[in-house]
Automatic annotation (TrEMBL):
Cofactor(s) listed: pyridoxal 5'-phosphate
Protein name as it appears in the record: cysteine synthase
Keyword annotations from UniProtKB, A to Z: Amino-acid biosynthesis, Cysteine biosynthesis, Pyridoxal phosphate, Transferase
Organism for this UniProt entry: Secundilactobacillus paracollinoides
One function term, GO molecular function aspect: cysteine synthase activity
Length: 306
């Protein structure tokens, strides 16, 4: 395969039918999003957000792109902005991984760190302040831009239907950070088949299940406020997965399947296994593995105690 640009590698990722023991003889299929060129599911979002801004006349060839991000969206936005030669400022809470921040810089982005304690809310506030002081700037603002769920509605979700063909999807399981991945795909799958259950996944310390907000080690998922995109989608269940369970699946996937998954993928897998216990025998469960463990080596992802 000869390609002309790295951006052609975005999307159309493989769907792995996990060769593991699943409760009730069910099947778990995982979309391997670490195979995007920037290493995560958020390459799709970066490409879509920048193109959307161009199409809507909000970005011209001099515009500075500014975005608050936990990291993967920053890499995706920086990749897309680089293709269009647009300067990029990414506002990142300092706790997010060294690898992700290094990759953003390597792509040419400028990083502004906010204190970890302020969470994503402080990064959002800071991005708005920088934008107010930067002439001809554009903040895609993944946390409220409908282009975020639209990205997944138009790309990843149809890929699932194309790959699984006539095999119905009984449950869709995905983590939520901004909520774009879950909302876009859940909406599409419900339109295809009303019987598909949508299960959203969060770590302990995220607020969806009404628990107290606190920090967690699972990176990329967990919300500090209810994503606005959730108003348009049916959520059949919310599963809260402890960090220890997510990291256990991360270790298992490497040790038994030769697959390097990040901790949000580990949480998605732990949740999918729980869902399999609740569903009838022989069900088809689809989940998403957003990125690889390789960008969390500095956080000792394989050495974390349960
Ligand atoms: N996993 C990882 C590793 C991520 O970086 C993100 C994005 N923050 C997610 C899951 C969640 O995706 P979304 O923002 O679409 O909810």
């Amino acid at each position: 395969m000869i390609i002309q640009s790295v951006s052609q590698l975005i999307g159309n990722t493989p769907l792995l039918e996990l060769p593991i023991d699943v409760p009730n003889g069910s099947h778990i299929y995982a979309k391997l999003e670490m195979f995007n060129p920037g290493g995560s599911i958020k390459d799709r979002l970066g490409q879509y957000l920048i193109q959307d801004g161009i199409d809507k006349g909000k970005i011209n060839d001099q515009t500075t792109i500014i975005e608050p991000t936990a990291g993967n969206t920053g890499i995706g936005v920086a990749l897309a902005a680089q293709q269009h030669h647009l300067p990029t400022i990414l506002v990142v809470p300092e706790k997010f991984s060294y690898e992700k921040q290094t990759l953003m810089r390597a792509l040419g982005a400028t990083i502004v760190n906010t204190p970890s304690e302020g969470g994503i809310k402080e990064a959002i506030q800071k991005a708005r302040e920088i934008a107010a002081d930067t002439p001809n700037s554009y903040v895609p603002m993944q946390f409220e831009n409908p282009a975020n769920p639209a990205t997944y509605y138009h790309t990843l979700a149809p890929e699932l239907i194309a790959d699984l063909g006539d095999q119905g999807i009984d449950a869709f399981v995905a983590g939520a950070g901004s909520g774009g991945t879950f909302a876009g795909i859940a909406k599409y799958l419900k339109e295809q088949n009303l019987k598909t259950k949508s299960i959203v996944v969060e770590p302990e310390g995220s607020i969806l299940n009404g628990g107290p907000a606190h920090s967690h080690r699972t990176e990329g998922i967990g919300v500090e406020f209810i994503p606005p995109f959730f108003q348009e989608v049916t959520i059949d269940e919310t599963l809260t997965i402890p960090d220890a369970d997510a990291f256990e699946q991360v270790r298992q996937m490497a040790a038994t399947q030769g697959l390097f998954i990040g901790s949000s993928s580990g949480a998605a897998l732990a949740a999918s296994l729980k869902v399999a216990e609740e569903l009838p025998a022989n069900s088809t469960i689809v989940t998403v593995f957003p990125d690889s463990s390789e960008r969390y080596m500095s956080e000792h992802i394989y050495e974390k105690e349960a």
